[in-house]
Amino acid sequence: MPSTNETREFPGAKAPERTGSINSSGLRLALNEWGDPDAPVLAMVHGGFDFSRTFDVFAPMIAEAGWRVVAWDARGHGDSDHAHMYGWSADVRDHLAAIQSISSEPIVLLGHSKGGGQLLDLLDGRPSLAKAFVNLDGLPSQFSSPDVNDRERRRMRRADLASGLDRRRRRNELSRRPDTIEGLAERRQPMNPRLSREWLEYLVTVGARHDDEGWRWKIDPVLHLGGFGPWRPGWSLDHLAALEMPFLGVLSGVQDDPMGWKSRHSDIEPFLPPGGRLEYFDDIGHFLHIEQTRVIADLVLEFLEPLR
Amino acid sequence: MTRATEFLVNGSLRLALHTLAEGEGRPLLLLHGLGEQSPMSRPDWTSAWNGPVLALDFTGHGESDVPVSGGYTPEGLMSDVDAVLAQRGPVTIVGRGFGAWVGLLVAGARTSLVQGVVLFDGSGVVGGGSQPPTPYVNVLPASGTTKPDPYALLELSRDPRPPDYALDYVRFVLEDSEIENPIVVSARIRPDWLAAVAADIGVIELPLDQAIESFT
Fold first, then answer.
1. pTM
2. In the CATH hierarchy, which top-level class contains the domain A18-145+230-307?
3. Could you tell me the CATH number of the domain that includes residue B50?
4. What ipTM describes this predicted complex?
5. Contact A124 B158 (CB under 8 A)
6. Whether A301 contacts chain B with CB within 8 A
7. Which pLDDT tens digit goes with each residue over A208-255?
8. Interatomic CA distance for residues B11 and A224, integer angstroms
9. B74: which chain A residues are within 8 Å (Cβ-Cβ)?
10. Residue ranges per structural domain of chain A
11. Which H or E element spans position A108?
12. How would you class A221 by CB atoms within 10 Å of its CB: exposed for 0-12, middle for 13-18, buried for 19 or more?
């Protein structure tokens, strides 16, 4: 097994310049920052099964343009505490706690995937938090759900229920499976098929920890993909239409990417808030800001320029 | 009898399971409403039940532990009931209010272990309604050991309960159950989800005492 100080390099990746923590009603959330601490704040919210260090290339790129970029790990993810309970609304509340701890003034918020969907909820209820909102492929739509009939949907839900309960019965015995850096990267590849092995190996060294048996992802082993309960993608569109701050949505049009909601431009466009902007890339996958970092960073910076 | 209490392990927390009456055979498990706790003694309406009568305090309620920073969902609290099922095996459930909602969910998730569920009136039966309520996001101070946990009251009174979601669980029960009428509605208050459940052709309605008797 590799030694604990083994690292990987990735072009453009920079470790956070400052680290800290946020207290969300007694739960500690890990905080990372890049850029001038006196610059205007742009907060980034990661997606499900990700962590804030997945912004290690994107965040420095934004920071170099004159922003203080702040990102935190969701409960149970990255270096944040594992919680007894998890849920969409708890994540949304954690985001509020984080934002309130960072600034008492409106800031720019950017969310990817699930993080973007959760910010839609938060900003519908707390619009004064943001002076602008950028959503990277986190716009769930009711129209783009996979073509699954009712019987199949119920079967999937039922299987998910049983496995979720079984997992929670065993939660005190669960641990993430140890592996080498290369092994963990290989196991993550199916969720990130368009990202390079070099990047995934870098992620292991910042998103996993090493013990006597090898590297293990830090994410709470009780967490699993899915498990949104009665939540429906279409509910998010109500929140989108309600927004009042400057809005930029960026959609991936790659339909065979295993992650993401596969919303199409025509699904979202009718629900854009007044003045809202929607960009659609049919050749960039769900992890737009990682796959084409410069393109997405330039788009975000151009959108934000009038707000500086 | 004076209720006897034991504590079940659920992750890092303890759950209080009370025995309100001893007996042989399958237990009757009582699930309380939102913000409530288990009764101190056996309710009169359980008199037809000859087996043990148990009552569970949900996480953040009664004598059960309070988690750090909430995160309550009905689906998450299914694991509270599942901890009882893991220890005691098959039970019949009577759920009040919020307990009725969780009772239906866990009956659908553990069809071989929940042998009948009675849905009755009680606090928290409505939840957030059929659609998400107006967004309300607030950070509360760390609650420590305050019970009922303010986060439980906040989060479990706002969870959406679409009727078709409830009917999925009805289908799970009806497809698997070996009992003729495994779901009985005794509640008089009928939010949309419960009205849909009661209207399902596989569900019957009975007064509470008769509902319990139907599972003896």
1. 0.95
2. alpha beta
3. 3.40.50.1820
4. 0.95
5. no
6. no
7. 999 999 999 999 999 987 666 898 888 889 999 999 999 999 999 998
8. 16
9. 229
10. 18-145+230-307, 150-217
11. strand A107-112
12. middle
